[in-house]
Amino acid sequence: MVYFIRELFLWAILMNRSDLAMSICSRTTNPVVATLVASKIYHQAATQSRCITAERKLEYLKKEKEFGEHAAGIIDRCFQVDEEFALKLLTQESDVFFKYNALYLAREINSRPFLATKCIQKHLDTEWYGNINYNVYSYTNIMVNYY
């Protein structure tokens, strides 16, 4: 059943039924990865195809951005509800979608709306600073310098 939904989702994308693909992605096991996979497919179609018209290329780029923004909206909502869950969702591999994870896909297609989310920034802060609470230390240093 899970693979049937994936196949239906991919069919909707390839048949240029982005409205159907958008509604199906919410029923997949990992909707963030699903929307980023759709964004990647539209990105590849716009940049790699040599025999498409300029109008079709603009349409594909618009749909790529639309799916990227949808993925950003999903991860932002998850981050508002549960930060730890959202951070795990970024790096969790999707068995249904070819072992991709959301962070890898977003970097691969340079999905700016997704990469600009608070969840990604928190992930990068955690990667860079680890468990150090850098906000507390910088505030303390500022207070010490004034006295």
Any descriptors?
77% helix; globular; transmembrane; mainly alpha; single chain; 147 residues; monoatomic cation channel activity
Task: Give the topology.
Layout: H1 2-14, H2 18-25, H3 31-48, H4 54-81, H5 83-91, H6 102-109, H7 112-115, H8 118-129, H9 134-146
Helix pairs in contact: 1-2, 1-3, 3-4, 3-6, 4-5, 5-8
Explain this structure.
There is one protein chain. With 147 residues, the protein is an all-alpha fold. It has one domain (2-146). The protein has nine helices and no strands. It has helices at residues 2-14, 18-25, 31-48, 54-81, 83-91, 102-109, 112-115, 118-129, 134-146. Helix 3 packs antiparallel against helix 4 (54-81). The longest helix is centred in the middle third of the chain and has 28 residues, at 54-81. The N and C termini lie far apart (65 Å). The mean pLDDT is 85.
Can you summarize this structure?
The chain is mainly α and 147 residues long. The chain is built from nine helices and no strands.
Strand-and-helix sequence, N→C? Answer: HHHHHHHHH
Instruction: State the domain count.
Output: 1
What class do helices, strands and sheet pairing give? mainly alpha
What integer is the average pLDDT? 85
Question: What is the alpha-carbon Rg in Å?
Answer: 18 Å
Q: Summarize the main sheet.
A: none
Strands, count:
0
Strand-residue proportion: under 5%
Helix content: over 70%
End-to-end C-alpha gap: 65 Å
Contiguous uncertain segments of 5+ residues: none
Put simply, the count of helices is: 9
Membrane topology: Multi-pass membrane protein
Domain TRPM-like: 5-116
Keywords: Membrane, Signal, Transmembrane, Transmembrane helix
Organism: Didymodactylos carnosus
